[in-house]
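Notes to self after the call with IL:
- keep both proteins in one doc
- input above output, always
- annotate only the second one for now

Protein 1:
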Amino acid sequence: MREGETFQELLFNAKEAFMAKLTDLLRYLNSNNIEFQVLEHDPAFSAHEVAARTKVPESEMAKAILIRIEGRYWMAVLRADQRIHQPLLKRTFAAKNVHIAHEEDLGLLFPDCQLGAMPPFGNLYGLPVLVEDGLAGDEEIVFNACTHTKAIRMKFKDFRRLAKPVIAAFAEPRSVMAIRELQD
């Protein structure tokens, strides 16, 4: 808070900062001649909630998760109705150390986005992008757009051209994960 700044001004200024970064994302898409649609929605803090508020099936909603593979950050992109299956991810990368990054890391690596609302363009942050192979077969992708109140819908082929992701199998449906947890 700056000296003399009220709490309401602080919130307004923070909102403006996020909007500027959303504007940067939109400018990036426009400068690459990408057709897209901005979906406005009530505040949502998980991919599941965004899907519900935008009336997009969870199987069509993408979520971006920051992971570390052998100490290197990656942006993993998968469907909202999936979970990362760490043993599969380890096998896919022949890696011993695979971790979901800490929430604090999100604030450091994506300072221009509201916490957890980063778009799946890890390439814009110097991160390699990993896309779940099932999502790669979809015609469209819907994802968070830097805020908890906006999402973007665009063609997957355009996302692929911009993000240049590695495509691999590393996730499973949440329902399978829930069954596995009950058995343990």
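Protein 2 (the one to annotate):
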Amino acid sequence: MELVAGIIAIIMIGVVFGVDVFFSIIGVQALRKCRDKSMVDVLGHMHQIADKRMPQFGTVGIFAIVAAVIFNGGLRVGNLEYVIAFLLMLGYIFIYNFKSKPIHKVITTAAEAHKVPSNLRTIQTHWDRIIIGRAILLTIVMILLCIGIM
């Protein structure tokens, strides 16, 4: 059961990992070339949907990490990679809720009102740095989870 839980964690967190890596490598560069109104319209509606759907994958992944630890005998040295992955995911949740989500809210609100925030490029540059950091953090989590199922 530990292996199944570990695989579920990899798949679920892998969805979030894939999105963050995509945006850190491709999205950041593409958005820099967009007109402000286009950026607000697309990102605002994308964040509106993603902020509702993406946490489900992360939540299932985190519960699967906990299940893998439990099925593998609880808190012990043999579960170190799962425990570290779990703690990093808690850090990820903090970064998402207190750094990324407020930016999403500004852009989503602007898209709904058909307006462009005067500080759009500034907050987008800030978001670009955050998404790159999130992608790096999730890369470490994915490596730890893969080690965990070995």
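Annotation: The mean pLDDT is 96. The chain has one domain: 2-148.
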